[in-house]
Amino acid sequence: MRVIISGGGTGGHIFPAISIAKKIEKIMPMAEILFVGADGRMEMEKVPAAGYKIIGLPVTGMKRGFSLKNISVLLKLFRSLKMAKKIISNFKPDVVVGVGGYASGPILYQATKMGIPTVIQEQNSFAGLTNKILSKKVNKICVAYDGMEKYFPENKIVKTGNPIREEIIKLAHTRMDGIEKFNLNPNLKTVLVIGGSLGARTINLSVSNSLNMLNQYNIQIIWQTGKNYFNTAKMQSLGYKNVRVHEFIYEMDLAYATADLIISRAGAITISELCQLGKPAILIPSPNVAEDHQTKNAMALVQVDAAVMMTDDEAIGSLMVTALDILEDEKKMATLSKNIKKLAIPNATELIVKEVLSIVKKTELHTS
Question: Which of 108, 201, 233, 255 has the largest CB neighbor count within 10 A?
């Protein structure tokens, strides 16, 4: 079987794509998989690092409002559509899977025109414009949230959940492994702060503004700052013995195992991982994403008392105060943990791959 997996732009699109590829290979070891991404984006580095071939398209995002730069964006889109058609003609895939991000649009569009079976994997509770347009043409749409018939044809929707990393599903490590790895005190409660791969400005500022206050309490912090804030945070945290600053945490399963409370943005894949872990969380949706979809992701949890949400403005002044209040409220911690765990779909990747194989089989039967 030959499969094209397309999309990227952020870890939230790339890591699910790689999880899907690995699961396909596990079920069908002879499968050939080709990734298609966007030139200059994160997938062009992460996908080859995971052992897969990737081709880049020149596609970029439209600028909001009137901008002369959008002329260039449209030219790149037409080039990408032409390239996408050529890639499909050369590779001859049995199925194309789109995981979101700039590159998935041209590839899925051309695949549907050429009669290739197609699957969209929509991670968020709010569908993007490209996926809404393509949903009328694709064969299946795998979603992680209820109520997605607002955006997609109901007969094409399958609720599968989001693919998450295998090590998070298994989480074989104990809390003490994490304590040892991050050089922490086993007798103190631990807050894991995830500031994103580049750096979530509000989260990082909220922590740095609270360092003096935190020194007075018996808690410790694992703080992933992201690339852009790391040097500043490293300087600011000098002298605070219970703060561990990291630019990026590669052993996230160990960090998760150690954490009593997690503070994070509300990206769809992060939320899926938190559900799997059953850890109490404070979610601070990024205001810089399309259609404010992270707020909608977070609200899906807040409505069932499975997480606490704060806006950027609220977080700057009172994030760590709220964190301390939650840590001290054992009843609240237990409720959040129990309710978020109920939302987990641990076999999501398997369910998505099952749908992918199913539409290939149906197409083969139809054409034979």
Answer: 108
CA distance 92 to 251: 37
Q: Where is average pLDDT lowest: 65-79, 128-142, 173-187, 336-350?
A: 65-79
Q: Pick one of 3.30.70.270, 3.40.50.2000, 1.10.10.10, 3.40.50.300 as the CATH number of 2-162+346-367.
A: 3.40.50.2000
Q: Which residue type does 128 have? A: G
Distance CA 203, CA 286 (A): 10
Please state the rounded mean pLDDT for residues 139-162.
Answer: 94
Q: Beta 219-224 vs 95-98: how paired, if at all?
A: unpaired
CB < 8 Å & 24+ apart, contacts of 110-116: 110/81, 110/84, 110/85, 111/4, 112/137, 112/138, 114/85, 114/88, 114/89, 116/88
Q: Model's pTM, two decimal places?
A: 0.84
Are 139 and 156 contacting, i.e. CB atoms less than 8 angstroms apart? yes
For 43-70, the DSSP string reads: HHHHHHHTT-EEEEE---PPPSSS-THH
In the chain, where are the structural domains located? 2-162+346-367, 167-341
Q: Can you give the pLDDT at residue 327?
A: 95
Give residue 359's Cα distance to chain centre.
Answer: 25
Residue 189 phi, psi (nearest 5): -75, 145
Give the mean model confidence (pLDDT) for residues 19-36: 95
Q: Count of CB atoms within 10 A of residue 183's CB?
A: 8
CATH of domain 167-341: 3.40.50.2000
State how far the Cα of 133 lies from the Cα of 255, in Å rounded to an integer.
39
Separation of first and last alpha carbons in the chain: 16
Helix H or strand E segment including 337: helix 330-341
> Which carries the bigger pLDDT value, residue 170 or residue 148?
148
Residue 362 or residue 266, greater confidence: 266
Average pLDDT, the chain: 90
Beta-carbon neighbour count of residue 106 at 10 Å?
28
To the nearest whole percent, how much of the chain has pLDDT over 90?
63
Asked if the domains at 2-162+346-367 and 167-341 fall in one CATH topology, the answer is: yes
